[in-house]
Amino acid sequence: MKKSETTKTDKSERELRMRQTIKKAAFALMAEKGLDKVSMREIAEKVHVTKPVLYYYFKNKEDLCSSIIDDHEQAFCDQLLTVQQRAQGPEEVLYEGLKSHLDFFTKNPIHSKFVIQMISYTLDMDSSKMPARKQDRYLQGMLERILKEEEKEGKVPAGATTDIVRLVSGIATEIMFSAYLEQHVCRGCIKGSLYNREQIARLVKIILLGIKQYYKETK
């Protein structure tokens, strides 16, 4: 590799590391204080750089927020991709997807705090500028694709995919909110309501058995 190419590569790697350092610092601050309450000055001070350095990497705070949200949701989507590759059949797919969701929010408490702050932030935004929720879209898309195949094979009642996806999405949302309440609002206050793997397995069976029975009775 020529010296000029090596220098260019080194510069790219340094810039990538700096972008990640900035986003990590901003992520922690925004999870704690709120996306709209953290200034570029605070982020610069946290990273020990000047504000012009931040604006070299991100054109404004909205650009930085969008990049952080993308990274956060991509991490979750990567977990779901692993689920999609290894799970077999509707019961295993639903269980593994919800278990992955549970692990994502319980193993690192900052995730639930950041999502709550993100929801608060987006509620105050113009709906046309609201960032897409990749994790919701990916979870739903993954389930829809797999369940449609199961419908073709007769393992899931014809037309039941939408109902199953809506039920699972509701549980996924409650998992995130219960994790947030336990981790950041009142530890121990909702202990009996917290999700665990056994509870998820039971709910998945209830959903699939209930769906089959419902569609059987309404034929």
Walk me through this protein's architecture.
Helices cover 77% and strands 0% of the residues. The chain has 219 residues and is mainly alpha-helical. The model has no long low-confidence stretch (mean pLDDT 83).
Considering the chains and any ligands shown, give keywords for the structure:
DNA binding, 219 residues, 2 domains, Arc Repressor Mutant, subunit A, mainly alpha, Tetracycline Repressor, domain 2
Structural domain tally: 2
Structure classification: mainly alpha
Assign the CATH topology of the largest domain: Tetracycline Repressor, domain 2
How far apart are the termini?
Answer: 69 Å
Shape annotation: elongated
Number of DSSP helical runs? 9
Tell me the number of strands.
0
How large a portion of the residues is in β-strands, by DSSP E? under 5%
Order of helices and strands: HHHHHHHHH
Chain-wise SSE layout:
Layout: H1 3-33, H2 40-47, H3 51-57, H4 61-86, H5 89-106, H6 110-123, H7 134-152, H8 161-185, H9 197-217
Summarize this, please?
With about 220 residues, this protein is mostly helical.
